[in-house]
Amino acid sequence: MDIASGGTLTITAPGGGKATLRVGYVDSTTGTDVSRGTLDLTGGTLNATLGELTIGYHLYPWSGTAGKVEAVMTMEAGSVTADTVTIGYGQPPQGGAVAGGGGIGTLNFRGGSLQAQTIQLGVGGSNRAKGTLNFSGGTLTAEQILRGASGTANFNWTAGTLHVDTFGTASVPFNLLQQGGVLAPGRSIGSTTIYGNYTQASDGVLEIELASPTSYDTVTVYGNADLKGTLLVKFLGGYAPGLGDTFHILYASGTIDMTNLVLAGDEPPNSRWLLDVIPGEGPWENWQILQLQAAVPEPASWLLALLAGLAGLGYAGRKRSRLAP
Fold it and tell me: 244-269, pLDDT tens digit by residue?
């Protein structure tokens, strides 16, 4: 299905409830062909309230050559809320099936708003399941983003704002590569937990909001954190950090590399930011912590010049007194 440029597709269930949207969905165990489904909303708008959004679903084939489902959905504008977004689903083979399900799904999310409780890629138990989310604009909000243990999952993030509570799981880690865009933990003050490595490229932004010394955004990484982009600091509710206020904004069970990280955004009054990696203590023993602190300000250039001048006068006076008869 294609929506003409400028057109709008609105999907709701009768009575304003949650509808089901499926693109490329085959729940039969027969057939050996490739089934394809497309929902192209390029230039159009999608507004939907969904219980389920599934892109690329395929059961296991019983006989013959294993078929598959290939499905693509493209969204550029609008607002979609869903309980579950499944991209690439395939059941494992059962009985005399020749192979597991080959559900191959791709979501090109380029703009608008997509909110979901769960987004899952390459799931169902088949090693032929493959899910790809190409995220290049808009706002993506999810309680959790997961990958299947047996399938293939690709989260390609080049632009857009991501709010996610949990990325991956302890049993099935999922590395997060941020090639661009903004990682903003929670919805306003909140946290993001990443089970896997977090890699922030030079065009990526980590946005940290501070409301008080005890209320601020945090990121927890069960792996390594490689930070090469921008740390953007924002104050909320009129808060202004006092001298010595300290924030542990990122925890990593592995290592933290902030060699090329650029600090930007709001600055503390009458002080300066000090950013450092410190060792964890107590429950965070053997972890590393990225610490942001409002530290003693650097002396102003005019003060340095004045001190140098006074030092020079003192030296000249001492020299004259020694030369006096």
Answer: 999 999 999 999 999 999 999 999 99
pTM of the model: 0.88
Which sequence spans correspond to the domains of the chain? Answer: 8-323
Percentages of the chain per state (helix, strand, coil), in multiples of 5:
10, 55, 40
Min mean pLDDT across 139-153, 242-256, 257-271, 292-306 is at: 292-306
**Single-letter amino acid code for the residue at 66:** A
Q: Are 67 and 90 in contact (CB under 8 A)?
A: no
What sign does the dihedral 258-260-264-269 (CA atoms) show? positive
Alpha carbon 307 to its chain's center = 48
Residue 263 is predicted with a pLDDT of 97
List the beta bridge partners of residue 26: 58
Phi and psi torsions of 88, nearest 5°: 85, 100
Residue 21 carries which side chain, given as an amino acid letter? L
Question: 258-284 burial string, b = 16+ CB within 10 Å, else e?
Answer: beebeeebbebeebebeeebeeeeeeb
On whether the CB atoms of residues 233 and 292 are closer than 8 A, the answer is yes
Return the structure tokens found at 198. 């977090």
With bands split at pLDDT 50, 70 and 90, how would you rate the model's confidence at 110? very high
DSSP 8-state assignment for residue 270: T
- The owner of tokens 């302890």 is 170
Phi, psi of 320 (to 5 degrees): -65, -40
Q: Name the residue among 70, 58, 71 with its Cα closest to residue 31.
A: 58
**DSSP secondary structure code for residue 2 in this structure:** B
